[in-house]
């Protein structure tokens, strides 16, 4: 038994190392916002804090435009060609150039939208400052480090910038009117982290920046396009919830939903770490046996996490936000159902359809799910009424739709063979 474990560790040393680094990143990204959350909700109040979250939710659509699916498509390309410096230079240069163009487009789009929304008033500045989310996507090449399976650099940079700049929140944000410091401090952290990351890529790793050919740009654009379409559709039902809540219910309700979402995201951390750790290997090896073993572990872990949260949700809400945030509890209890459902759809979509070349199939499933989400929201708007719970229920049905769709296509294309029940 010991020899088997030793052999398993030896054969997966890189995977385990990257998983460890990703664990640190996820813990930092999860815990630090939760540490400052009680302080921000107390100092800024539900209204202003909800406004900050609402602005970030709006900018989230532009983040999808800037990202354009490259975080998956480029990771795959880097992982395949990581030993070819010339090809690596072409990939990295093309992705940075494409992201740069898309970032300029995102700024122009925001300017046009805000021009036709004069009622935004003084809050326009908040939306512009919230563009740090787009900036982070363009100058922090997580796709490169994932592709070469060197997650230690991301870990060091993340820990350094997050600890320092989350600490500054306690120094600069003292009253409700200081809400603009939230995106400002985040933006400073993004710039510092991005500069360090770029130095590692171009100086330490000696990846040459080249002017890519039009054909190269076209190729990487087309490779990422189906993923972009799917992510945009996914964004419709992942982040539109807070936008809809803000528009129909108010910013305090946005704060309630945001706390519930933060807690649910805490449950998704193990799954996200597994995704980032093994996706490069799956893209390279395409080992279905390995994927099926991972599926069993993933399902058990996510079901157990969901059950634990149902029991502890009230205590977690009171601990983080106080009793005034208890409306978040019912939302959490509903959304915990999505944790194992999303874990399964990740296996069928991210581990099977995309690595095995069914990008367009995956994209069509996500687009269909976005339409399914929109139809449900329209029905609620016209015939029922928007509430926090109704929005949460729609999230469950939409995620179930995605999982069913990815599973069906995996079975149809021979990527997954369901076990036959013995009579």
Automatic annotation (TrEMBL):
Domain of life: Bacteria
Keyword Transmembrane helix assigned: yes
Membrane topology of the entry: Multi-pass membrane protein
Spans through the membrane: 21-40, 52-74, 95-117, 123-146, 153-173, 179-202, 294-312, 332-354, 361-384, 390-410
Major site of localization recorded for this protein: membrane
Keywords: Cell membrane, Membrane, Transmembrane, Transmembrane helix
Compartments it resides in: Cell membrane
Protein name: Transporter
Taxon lineage: Bacteria, Pseudomonadati, Bacteroidota, Flavobacteriia, Flavobacteriales
């Amino acid at each position: 038994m010991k020899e088997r474990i030793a052999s398993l560790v030896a054969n997966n040393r890189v995977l385990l190392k990257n998983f460890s680094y990703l664990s640190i990143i996820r813990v930092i990204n999860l815990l630090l916002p939760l540490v400052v959350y009680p302080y921000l909700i107390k100092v800024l109040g539900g209204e202003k804090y909800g406004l900050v979250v609402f602005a970030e939710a709006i900018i989230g659509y532009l983040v999808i435009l800037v990202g354009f699916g490259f975080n998956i498509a480029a990771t795959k390309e880097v992982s395949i060609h990581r030993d070819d410096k010339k090809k690596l230079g072409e990939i990295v240069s093309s992705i940075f150039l494409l992201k740069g163009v898309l970032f300029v487009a995102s700024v122009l789009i925001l300017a046009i939208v805000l021009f036709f929304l004069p009622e935004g008033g003084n809050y326009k500045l908040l939306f512009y400052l919230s563009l740090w989310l787009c900036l982070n996507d363009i100058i922090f090449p997580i796709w490169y480090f994932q592709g070469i399976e060197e997650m230690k650099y991301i870990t060091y940079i993340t820990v350094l910038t997050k600890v320092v700049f989350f600490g500054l929140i306690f120094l600069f944000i003292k009253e409700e009117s200081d809400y603009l410091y939230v995106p400002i401090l985040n933006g400073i952290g993004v710039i510092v982290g991005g500069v360090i990351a770029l130095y590692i890529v171009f100086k330490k790793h000696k990846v040459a920046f080249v002017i890519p050919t039009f054909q190269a740009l076209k190729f990487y654009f087309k490779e990422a396009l189906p993923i972009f379409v799917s992510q945009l559709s996914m964004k419709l039902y992942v982040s539109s919830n807070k936008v809809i809540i803000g528009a129909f219910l108010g910013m305090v309700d946005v704060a309630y939903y945001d706390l519930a979402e933060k807690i649910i995201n805490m449950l998704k951390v193990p799954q996200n770490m597994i995704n980032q750790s093994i996706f490069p290997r799956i893209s390279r090896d395409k080992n279905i046996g390995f994927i099926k073993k991972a599926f069993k572990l993933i399902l058990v872990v996510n079901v157990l996490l969901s059950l634990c949260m149902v029991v502890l949700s009230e205590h977690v809400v009171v601990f983080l936000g106080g009793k005034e945030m208890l409306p978040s509890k019912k939302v959490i209890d509903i959304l915990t159902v999505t944790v194992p459902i999303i874990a399964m759809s990740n296996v069928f979509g991210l581990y099977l359809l995309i690595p095995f070349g069914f990008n367009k199939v995956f994209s069509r499933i996500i687009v269909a799910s976005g339409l399914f989400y929109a139809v449900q929201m329209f029905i609620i708007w016209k015939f029922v009424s928007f509430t926090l719970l109704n929005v949460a229920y729609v999230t469950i049905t939409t995620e179930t739709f995605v999982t069913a769709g990815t599973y069906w296509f995996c079975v149809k294309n021979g990527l997954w063979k369901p076990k036959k029940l013995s009579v």
